[in-house]
Each structure stands twice: as structure tokens, then as C-alpha cells.
Fold:
Amino acid sequence: MERDFSKPQRESAVGIVVMAVHTILKVVKALFFFIIYAFVKIDGVYLSYILLALAILILLCLIYGYFWYLKFTFFLNKEKQEFVVNKGIFNRDQVIIQLDKIQQVNINQNILQKIIGVYGLKIDTAGAKGEEVSIKAIDEISAYNLKEHLLSKKETSVERVSEIDEKLIPTNETPLLRISSWTLFKVGLTSNYGQSLALMIAFFLYTIQEARHIMDVFDIDKGYVESTVMGLATLFSLAIIVVILLVALLIINLVRTFYKYFELEISQHKHSLLLSSGLIAKKSTLISQGKVQITKYSQNYFQKKLNILNMSLRQAQFGQSKKEDEMQGNILEIVGCSPLERDELLKIIFGRPLAQGKTFKPDWRFLNLPVFFKIVLPLFIFLIAAYNIPELNPYIGVSITYFVIGIFMIYLSYRRHRISVNRDFIIKTSGIWDISKEIILPGKIQAITTFQYPWHKNIDVGHLTLHTAAGQIQFKYGNYSEIKQLVNYWLYQLESKNENWM
Structure:
């Protein structure tokens, strides 16, 4: 089936429903408590008016979706190598994207799109916050076909579309990497607890805030609710509460892992990597491995015993990306791969096997500031407070434990702060529990910063920062003479090579 993207075309007609539902959800979210109050407080005589208002709202959203469908067009300009999108009902906008500036293309399918039988396509560029363009309804063949053209090299012309139509749709061929459910279970048990804890705290605070609004709407006695909660709390000891929280944290972590990474697969398509995953909303992302600037992998003690690790691919970014649940942004995560699978992926991304080089270590003065600001100063303030407040005396033993654990963690951070350099790679090692390695090619460095505190000049200690569009890599308290030699070497490499990674 021929796909001619050189002519302006619209989304699939069922996109009217997708856009209407999307608009309805935004309106309902904004007026959620007003709608609840209307159904609860307003007399039943006026219920028919409320339902009529909701019906009118749905009709208006459908009309809005229809006009959006009429005004939204897109096409490929093969001569200028541009992707052009015209959109907007009242204020007309035209978005023009150079094909060589596109970093990744995501094909998503939420529940509604899955029911209707269409896909959503989103395009990311380095200069955009979140997705640059979002097509909400496109058929499967066109979605994968368009995605291939958007990330293909310039010599791939639009006229070749009909030759590669069905070949672009994922087939049953063996992918480079496929993460099983058992591996995801191990990942959920051993990683991302910080994110899950933050999510649980945010959900708890949000629930409290919304519960107060509901109590205001229904005139519930807050004093009675507080006394009931406190009465329930006295039924459980502190140890039981801690166990319940840990179990809840574990469950949340497992659910998050399976929801986001279920059936995670990676396959190679010409000059790109295709990543697909998702439990309810299936998401596929096609990225050019040549545009990956920083590759990172990490592993903790338990993951090492289970022979798994997590990887992330960072691309150029400016500003902040949009919501994480849209898989937008510039960091793509690959969880649960084995060391052999990691080495294979690194070989594909870099075009050659990863090799270690000469390792540079920090000076022992790396310990000074963390020990003072994270150990000495907090304990000094606590001991002064305990001297003046007798109620704090029983917690002095806890402060001793804090001191021992803090010193040990800072020492581990010092021991693992390393940078390895050879002709082809720069590898930064860091971490306390999760030991991570960040890898970049010298040709992708955009700027280099070195500095030295005045009191470190006599002892030849300094700091190094490598700037890239995907973030920074820092090496602190190294030998300053060695750092300057490394900088001269990297500048020579940048001047002698002409690598066009963007």
C-alpha cells in the first residue's frame, strides 16, 4: 500500500473522537469538585439541567475535535528535508522541523486508541520542551512508515515509501533484547525505591489535600475524622506500621516497573534502535544511536548477584521535558539487561566494543567538604540542641549511628569516584549503593571547564567538568596537571575530527 507523505494529509477520521475525549478529560479534571458538588448539593429537580449541561459540553468537545481534525495537516518536504505541521483552529500555527534535528519518534497507544484501532505519534527534538509535534490518530502502517522516514538518512526519499510499507511494522523476528516478566520482578525488587517512595509520599499528601476538600463539600466533622484516625493508629505498634509501609513500597515499586517496562523489547532498524514497552499503554520509541550522547549503566549489590543491571540512553536536551508517563524527554531507560546484553548494546551504539583506559583517582581531600557539611555540622547542631533540651538526650545513640554510617557512605563515594580515559571513550564511575558508569565519546564534548580553589594550587588539586547537550560529567579533586593534559588531548581530538552527531 502506497504512503505518499509529500502531500498534506490529515489524521485518521476517528481522531475526532480521540481529541474530543482528550478535551473532555481536561474539562472534567478542572471542574471535578464542582461536578461532585452539583450532583450532591443541588436539588434533584435541577438534575436534568445538569445532565443537559454535560451533554452540551460533550457536544462542544466533539465539535472542537472535528474542527481540530479539519485544520490539522502534516507532510514531508523531501526537497528541504523538513517535516511540516499546520495546526490550530483560531490561531493557526505552522511547525517546521528539520529531519536531521529529530532525536526520537514515539508511537504510543493508550486504552482509547487501542479500542478505536489507531496510534499516537510524537516527535522530539533537542530544542523542544517535551514533544515538538503530537499526532493523536494515525493508522499502524502509516505510523511506522512515517517514523522510519523521520529518522532515516537524507538519501532515503519519500518516494520509496511503497517499497518498505509493511516491512516497517514490527514483526515476530527475534529482537536484540527482550526482558521477561521474571526479570522485571527482580528489577522491581532491587531498584528505583527512591522514586517509589517519592511517589507514595506525593500520593499520600495529595490524598490528604483532596480529603479536606471532600469534607468541606459534604460538611464532615474534621475533629471526628482526626480522632478516628488517631484511634486506629494506637492499635498498631511502630514496628507493624514500618512493615506495612515497606510492603506498600515494594508493591508500588513492582506495579510501577511492570506498568512501564512490561514486554520491554529492543530491536535494530537500519540506523536506529526501536524500544517498545508498556502494560496498558504500549509505547514504541525509535531513536538514532548516533545521536545518543551519554550512555549510562548502573548496578547494586543485589543486582550483581542476580546478574542484571539497568541502562539509560541520554540525548541532547534543552529545558525540561514533559510528563514522564508520556515517555517524552531525552532519557530512555533499559532495565533488567544482562552484562552480555549490555556489551552488545554498547557495541551497537558506539560501533565498537567498550574498552577501559587509564584510570584517574581523586585526592583524599575529596572527603573534606562532605564530612564537614553532612556529618560534623549536623551533629554539632544536634549536640548543642541536646545539651539544652533534655528530651533529646535519648537520641544521642542514634547520632552515633548516623556518624558511623555517614562516614562509611562518604568513604564509599570517594573510593568509587573515578574517571577512565582512552582514545575512544571517557568513562566516569560513581555511586554508593548503585554503582554507575557514564560513557561518552570525546567527539561529543561541547565544552570543557576546569577550575581550582586558591588553597589547592600548591598541592596541584583541581576539578574537571565535561559539558554536553545531554548533561554534565564531573571529576572532582583530581591531579590538576593530569587534568590539563587530558583537556589538551580532548581538544586535539575535537579539532582533528569533524564528527556531525546532530
Observations:
- The mean pLDDT is 78.
- The radius of gyration is 28 Å.
- The longest strand covers residues 471-479.
- Residues 296 and 438 are 4 Å apart (CA to CA).
